[in-house]
Amino acid sequence: MSDIKYFIGDCRELLKNIPDNSVKLVVTSPPYNIGKPYGKYKDKIALNDWEDLLRSVTQEVVRVLTPDGSFFLNLSPVPYGNDKEILPLPFIGYQIFKDSGLFLRNMITWTFNNMQNCTNRLSGRYENILWGVKDIKNYVFNLDDIRIPYITKNDKRLEGGNGRNPTDVWYFDRVNNMTKKKLNLQHPTVYPLPMIERIIKMSSNPGDTILDPFVGSGTTLVAAKRLGRNAIGFELDENYIDEIEKRLKYENELIVKGDE
Ligand SMILES: C[S@@+](CC[C@H](N)C(=O)[O-])C[C@H]1O[C@@H](n2cnc3c(N)ncnc32)[C@H](O)[C@@H]1O
């Protein structure tokens, strides 16, 4: 049985309650400082404050991760800065990883469909997920659990094994978010559940603890529950408790019915 917990408050404070070396995997998507309508959190703060938030969270993440643990940080390549210096957010994330002692294992490109249609630059159709590890020689990577089934016999002859090795380019639908539609969730950035499930399968084992400091509508909690992991989520806005509870309740109903 998974132990799933969530707490309302500022993750910078709540993280202090997590013991050192106790979390196998941290997977999260912080706000991007682009003015998303989150409710309590104002997603347009001074750039230095945004960077400080990410830095202090990453430092705490490194402290709570087990020596073989991983941190997956999702950031959009939207321009960040002022007129003099414009950097994409993943670049800032990479710098923060480096300063915090994390090794970058992969920079995953998550591509998706989207409604956004820019007229002054190319329309965005990807984000990055930075995968950082504490120890470059010793970290959990369950390749067999995330192999992609072969489509033709030719694939098998070429590669051997029980399925393709996934690449660092992932497609997960964003517009047709099944969970969001089915449960009528109002959170503006509900993540694709199968994407978080892939990360959890890949970088943790059943019984491990997963943490999401910016848990939003609870996608990470639901994915962890499905996969028999324990999970802890933090969220600033108490209005999202309803969404988290609705999702976990629905998950329980699926388990009772035996319908996945
Ligand atoms: C990008 S959303 C996360 C969405 C989530 N991945 C999901 O699938 O629902 C970021 C969330 O972080 C929350 N947040 C912002 N600042 C926070 C803080 N200091 N501590 C905890 N949560 C915070 C926002 O309210 C928002 O719900």
| Major beta sheet summary | 8 strands, mixed
CATH architectural name? 3-Layer(aba) Sandwich
Strand ordering within the main sheet: 1-10-9-2-3-7-6-8
What share of residues is helical?
Answer: 25-40%
CATH superfamily: Vaccinia Virus protein VP39
**Structural class based on helices, strands and sheet pairing:** alpha/beta
**What is the number of E strands?**
10
Query: Beta fraction of the residues?
Result: 15-25%
Number of helices: 8
Give the domain tally.
1
Secondary-structure map with pairings?
Elements: E1 4-8, H1 11-14, E2 23-28, H2 47-64, E3 65-75, E4 79-81, E5 86-88, H3 89-99, E6 103-111, E7 126-133, H4 153-159, E8 169-171, H5 178-182, H6 193-203, E9 209-212, H7 219-226, E10 230-235, H8 241-257
Parallel strand pairs: 1-10, 2-3, 2-9, 6-8, 9-10
Antiparallel strand pairs: 3-7, 4-5, 6-7
Bound molecules: S-adenosylmethionine.
Describe the structure.
By secondary structure, the chain is an alpha/beta fold. The chain has one domain (4-257): Rossmann fold. It contains 8 helices and 10 strands. The strands form 2 sheets. Strands 1-10-9-2-3-7-6-8 form an 8-stranded mixed β-sheet, with helices on both faces. It has a two-stranded antiparallel ribbon with strand order 4-5. Strand 9 (209-212), helix 7 (219-226) and strand 10 (230-235) form a beta-alpha-beta unit. The longest helix is centred in the first third of the chain and has 18 residues, at 47-64. It is globular. The two termini are 16 Å apart. The model has no long low-confidence stretch (mean pLDDT 90).
